[in-house]
Design brief:
50% of the residues lie in helices and 13% in strands. The protein is an alpha/beta fold. Helix 5 links the parallel strand 2 and strand 3. Strands 3-2-1-4-9-6-10 form a seven-stranded mixed beta sheet, sandwiched between helices.
Length: 429
């Protein structure tokens, strides 16, 4: 029993010795490592750390650059989309306007059909007469309320003489309206293209209308020559027709000797004076073209007529008339062309492949009643019988010395001075 107790005590002493030895060894090894590795056994390499930091910074910088470029790209895309959006809005507006006009045209066509009435059977031989007078449009005062109010006070039976003028033609304009007043024509109006003409007309108690500012029109109106100003009338007259008024368009190089409204037929969309100087040239003729090389078929028949004068014509407020004004105005806006040539081409060219002609009726005025200056100076003044005729108007369209010839016409027809026309040559030499 004593022996077992001694043995157990020795074993416990040996275990404590081993534990103490292990602790001592651990402390010793800790001191050795602390001395050998004062900064720690697993310290990172500074170069590696710097490279890591540098790499991270580069990644951050690269990310910032990419973000900036992305912002710029997004801004550019936004601007492009905004511009595209504006273009699309413009196209929508244009298409909407075209649709409105198409609907308006359809409505007008339906109204015209109603006006024309029911279909009829053809009558006996020689008794069939087609419709020559197109129905007038329904007046639309919303187009220009100010002009509508003015025309209501000036026009007579929905008819009016209209002339466009700027300060370049001031002297001729005065001769123009002085003779209109002398004849006693009440329904006339000057469309003033600049402030000077507006003031001048008001001073002379002449009915005058100045349009609202329009950059496209005003730039030509104030500084343009005769042809440029002449081309504006097709745009300006449209409003008159939309308001339901028939217009006798007049250049200012015209002397009025009678009231023209007493001598109109009013059976066509357009009734115009002619640049022709004889019955053949003014009213048309069969002009035979000879080409000997064709042998048996050497002769070809052609129909010819001298052009209508775009400086004096009567136009009724019908759909074909408004279409005529639109066509001419559009072509003059895009082509370098003389307005009178375009006016006649649109009136006379027939429909053919690639082109639809204008379905407008037309009448040529009596060339001795509505006289051009070629007829007067080349023929009438030399013929004793023709000199006794008193024309409705004389248009000094063939000669550049307009003012002195206008004054001579007044002297001859108004004051009875028989030799007033003698000093002038037939032409412009």
């Amino acid at each position: 029993m004593a022996v077992r107790s001694a043995t157990r005590g020795g074993a416990q002493t040996s275990l404590r010795s081993r534990i103490m030895g292990a602790v001592a060894l651990g402390v010793l090894l800790g001191c050795v490592f602390a001395w050998l590795y004062p900064h720690g056994l697993f310290k990172s390499d500074p170069d590696v750390e710097r490279r890591a930091v540098s790499k991270y910074g580069a990644q951050v910088g690269s990310s910032e650059c990419e973000s900036s470029e992305r912002v710029k790209m997004l801004k550019a895309e936004f601007v492009a989309l905004s511009e595209k959006n504006s273009e699309l809005k413009k196209e929508i507006r244009e298409l909407t306007e075209k649709l409105r006009l198409a609907e308006q045209g359809k409505d007008n066509a339906q109204k015209q059909f109603l006006v024309l009435g029911e279909q009829h059977k053809a009558g006996p031989f020689g008794m069939v007469k087609s419709l020559r007078t197109n129905p007038t449009v329904l007046p639309d005062e919303s187009v220009n309320p100010r002009l509508a109010k003015l025309l209501d006070s000036v026009a007579v039976r929905k008819e009016i003489i209209v002339a466009l003028a700027n300060s370049n033609v001031k002297q001729m304009l005065e001769v123009w309206f002085t003779n209109i007043k002398r004849v006693g024509i009440p329904n006339y109006l000057v469309v003033a293209l600049d402030d000077e003409i507006e003031s001048f007309c008001k001073e002379k108690n002449v009915p005058v209308y100045k349009r609202d500012p329009d950059e496209n029109v005003d730039s030509v109106a104030k500084t343009g020559g005769n042809h440029a100003v002449s081309g504006l009338k097709f745009r300006i007259l449209r409003e008159f027709l939309q308001l339901g008024y028939s217009v006798l368009l007049s250049d200012v190089d015209i002397v009025y000797l009678q009231n023209p409204f007493d001598h109109l037929y009013r059976d066509s969309d357009v009734e115009s004076m002619s640049d022709g100087h004889s019955n053949m040239t003014a009213y048309g003729y069969n002009d035979v073209f000879d080409e000997p090389a064709m042998g048996w078929a050497r002769f070809a028949h052609t129909m010819r007529i001298w052009v209508y004068n775009s400086g004096f014509f009567y136009i009724r407020p019908t759909i074909p008339s408004i279409e005529l004004l639109d066509r001419v105005a559009d072509r003059l806006a895009h082509e370098k062309a003389w307005d009178q040539a375009v006016f006649n081409e649109e009136l006379f060219y027939p429909s053919h492949p690639g082109y639809t002609g204008l379905h407008a009726s037309r009448r040529t005025m009596d060339m001795y009643m509505f006289m051009n200056s070629k007829v007067l100076f080349k023929t009438v003044r030399k013929d004793a019988k023709l000199k006794k005729l008193k024309p409705v108007i004389v248009h000094v369209n063939y000669h550049p010395d307009k003012l002195p010839r206008m004054l001579a016409v007044v002297e001859f027809y108004v004051n009875g001075k028989q030799d007033a026309l003698s000093p002038f040559p037939d032409g412009s030499e």
